[in-house]
Amino acid sequence: MPPKPWIKIGSHRVLANIYSKELISQKYINPANGNEVDWGLFHATKTAVMIVPIVGHDKIVVIRQFRHAINQVIWELPAGVIDGNESPEDTAKRELLEETGYKAGRTILMRPETNLWYDPPSFALSHYACLALNCTKADQGQRLDENETIEVNLVDLQEWVIMCQSGAVVSNPMIATTFSALPFLGIKLQFTQDGEQYTSK
To answer: What is the pTM of this model?
Structure first.
């Protein structure tokens, strides 16, 4: 029997709230057995945009910064939350400039009807995936918040894909956003007979 969507009962209760993130409790009815279940979820009050910034034909702008949840400095794509009535494309341009000092020449919303979800079983947070083409370095450089320290790196696109495949990039949303961009860039993943993966134009 195929699974059916659970039925939401009423509004959720906010158990904790800090920095646009909430721990909530939401009641559901399980249609398979009629049980009422109180489900705990992490919920974000703002939607994020992740950016794949391309310089020239084969370079990508990526960053390194500290992430508290895993207590590590990790590789990431530039990203940020939508402010007010911004479009995802406008957010991508603003965040790219603020975090990296690069300007986007052209932006493409890669999945306009379906967002990517961080962790569907427990985290009600999705993000838009945006491709930024013809990126160039701006005169003014980064515009970081008081508690942001971001290292900007320009790497070969193929090298970045290999980093996503090999485990050097540990953030699932960053990996998913990267692979969403490959068809737009005319890049195909191919496999050798022993299963090794590589990219080709």
So the answer is: 0.88
